[in-house]
Design brief:
The protein is an alpha/beta fold. 42% of the residues lie in helices and 14% in strands. Helix 5 crosses helix 6. The longest helix is centred in the first third of the chain and has 19 residues.
Length: 305
């Protein structure tokens, strides 16, 4: 394992699969209420520049279940890159804690944090990527399908940090990834170039949602305006409305297609109530699996399994 978990692209297929195997083991222990204090006496510093319910709850609860303690640091506690230099925060927090999780705006800040921290750093999200989310997502698909063979994932919506992480995953695990966004809102071009060059997966850009979901095993979406893009929300709503995941669009996918959303969802915008609450939705399974996957990542980084 690398010292840090910053991007899925930093890991090999075997390493990712090892995380999934440990995730399954830890999830089963959690369900059986079986103690698994692999990180007893260890502490995690959680640095938040961007607030998040799921990220805080999943990491804090997960660390507690592992026998450790997670310390929540809000934007008011640490003004990372503003009130204090990132490299100084990294070196100081490393003296107090065994591992750091950070949810930040600028990707450069997570890279600097990892460079100067003497303890492992987990990327809880940046404007560029969201690796823990996609690890939970693909693990949830594995749970429901039993395998990842002949998998077609169609991502519909903004080419944001979640989309970039799907592209990074496609550079490591083989599957068919279709990215469907309005023109000009595609995922990061450099990330796409690297993933194509890896030659692991078939990756397509399709602008027509109906064509994009054809034969899809998974239909995935996210909000149209991410945190920090509030000023663009109304304009984006008009541009993205044809890309809404609704029952009409889902009728063009496989009948057993799974529906996913990383949450929080803007119901009635990128996805309708009837779809997110419908029988094809595994949205809340993937939300739960954030905790189990992240626990596996923590244990691996701390060399406790």
């Amino acid at each position: 394992m690398n010292k840090d978990f910053i991007s899925i692209a930093d890991y090999s297929k075997d390493e990712l699969e090892a995380i999934f195997e440990l995730t399954k083991e830890l999830k089963e222990k959690t369900r059986r209420r079986e103690e698994h204090h692999l990180c007893k006496g260890l502490t995690m510093a959680m640095i938040f520049a961007k607030p998040s319910a799921r990220t805080r709850i999943s990491f804090e609860t997960g660390m507690y279940q592992l026998g450790g303690y997670a310390l929540y640091l809000s934007p008011n506690d640490i003004g990372i890159g503003k009130r204090e230099a990132v490299k100084d925060i990294a070196r100081v927090v490393s003296r107090y804690n065994d591992i750091i999780m950070a949810r930040l705006f600028e990707h450069a800040h997570i890279l600097e944090l990892a460079e100067y921290a003497s303890v492992p750093v987990i990327n809880g999200l940046t404007d560029y990527n969201h690796p823990c989310q996609i690890m939970a997502d693909i693990y949830t698909v594995l749970e429901h399908r039993g395998h990842l063979n002949d998998l077609k994932v169609t991502y519909i919506g903004d080419g944001n940090n979640v989309a970039n992480s799907w592209v990074n995953l496609a550079s490591k695990l083989p599957f068919h990834l279709v990215l469907c966004s309005p023109s000009g809102y595609e995922p990061d071009a450099e990330t796409l170039t690297r993933a194509h060059a890896a030659g692991v997966s078939q990756i397509e850009i399709i602008h027509d949602p109906v064509q994009a979901v054809k034969d899809a095993d998974v239909v995935y979406t996210d909000v149209w305006a991410s945190m920090g893009q509030e000023a663009e929300a109304e304009q984006r709503r008009k541009i993205f409305m044809p890309y809404q995941i609704n029952s009409q669009l889902m009728s063009h996918a496989r009948k057993d297609a799974l529906v996913m959303h990383c949450l929080p969802a803007h119901r009635g915008e990128e996805i309708t109530d009837e779809v997110i609450d419908g029988p094809q939705s595994i949205v809340f399974d993937e939300a739960e699996n954030r905790m189990h996957v992240q626990k596996a990542i923590i244990v691996k980084l701390l060399n406790k399994a």
